Amino acid sequence: MYPRAFHYHRASSLKEAVAMLSQLGDDAKLLAGGQSLIPLMKLRFANPQHLVDLNFVPGTSYIKEEGGALRFGALTRHAEIENSATAAKIPILHDCAAGIADVQVRNRGTIGGSLAEADPSGDWAVVLMTLSTEVCCLGAKKTRTVPLSDFIKDAYTTALAHDELVSEVVVKAPPKGSGGAYIAFKRSAPVYPTASAAVQLIMDGDVCKDVVIALGCVGLTAIKAKDAEAALRGQRITDKALSAAMEAARAAADPQSDMRGSTDYKRALVGALVKRAIEVAMRRAHGEQVEVGHIYA
Amino acid sequence: MPKKLAKGKKAAEPKPAANAAIEEIPISVQVNGKPHSLSVEPRTLLVEFLRENLDLTGTHVGCDTTYCGACTVVMNGAAVKSCTMFAVQADGAEILTVEGLEKDGQLHPIQKAFGDSYGLQCGYCTPGLMLSAFQLLSRNRQPSEKDIRKAIAGNTCRCTGYQNIFKAIESAAQNMKGV
Hints:
The structure holds two protein chains of two kinds. By secondary structure, chain A is an alpha+beta fold. Chain A contains eleven helices and 15 strands. In chain A, the strands form four sheets. A five-stranded antiparallel beta sheet of chain A has the order 4-5-10-6-7. In chain A, strands 14-13-12-11-15 form a five-stranded mixed beta sheet, sandwiched between helices. Chain A has a three-stranded parallel beta sheet with strand order 1-3-2, covered by helices on one side. In chain A, helix 9 runs antiparallel to helix 10 and helix 10 packs across helix 11. Chain A is globular. The two termini of chain A are 29 Å apart. Chain B is built from six helices and five strands. Chain B folds into two domains: 78 residues, Ubiquitin-like (UB roll) (Roll); 67 residues, Orthogonal Bundle (DNA polymerase, domain 1), CATH 1.10.150. Chain B has a five-stranded mixed beta sheet, covered by helices on one side. Chain B is 32% helix and 14% strand. Chain B is globular. At the A-B interface, strand 1, helix 2, strand 3 and helix 5 of A face strand 4 of B.
């Protein structure tokens, strides 16, 4: 399948890419890893007249630990994050990177591209929503820092102006006593999850001091399950509290019925994923090393 | 190529950038150790470039939607789906396709293992699987069962002959010890 013909522009710096976007106007799109954009172009759902390729810009792929935060260059590939000991210090980041599609896609796809694409089934937005995450947006006149919760507006829609790009993603390290986990249910590796759940919590003994729960693939964007969080916050995590959190997560989900499952099925599924993610997150918060993978049908 | 493009084009589609013809982009790539410099239309996918411009038809087009991995090649040491990259993005890169596995008439240990273990049925997915195995074994000579399964999760065998494929990669790892 061929995409519609387009003009190709190779940026040698992020600044130059921004200048190209301003000059080319609305019909220009950025090409990062291309693992979402190129399939969309081949199906002709996306038909940009101009592509600005960021892959030749040096210095855009890095993972740095700085001032209690991890800073990811926008073009850091999922595979680099998967294999990074620095990123693994926040275990939920490793869960995410290692579970995206397959080896080949992880070798190309980028963290910045995933957020900027804002695909409703993308993994990064769900996971990063449970952490304190900021997206650095580089424009012609200034760089602004946007909290992730304000960055993603809707399906495929972000706060980026047409002549802005994501230059860096900054994730604050969670406080001591924290644990997190991300679990998705997938029919096979290369496909999008049917549903997914990300949980990041802080334990004080057996009491949950604070918790963030985000649901993936069951709405137009990642959904924060606030009532599920409230069911756990300040509580001992008993079976009763867990059931209440699951129930609230099911209610928060807003899934579409499709070939991956019916609305009811996905609601039930996301509740179960939340429970499993909470259990792993708690064990990790207590200092246990837990390896967790996605569940395949 | 231009003829093929015209054939696949939908009539109702808006024309590309009003006035300008689409300019071809010069690229240089090393494929299986051989340098190639030529100009390509930007929308040319890497897999089409390999198959149609370089006549390396061992790399297959399966699903054409980033799912099946039949088009997997190794670029700068990393397995990629060549249907989900433009050829212009491979400018300056070193690419390995299935044709480059064999050396001096000798099958690569991975190829030999696929034959010996009956790791193929119809053979359509085989080049992609061998290149996914190549990335795995070039980084990890002692892969666990889980490592192998994870390495080929992006390759679909529609004959469903996964068990022998798995065994082939296991025995290739054995054969490559000390190589």
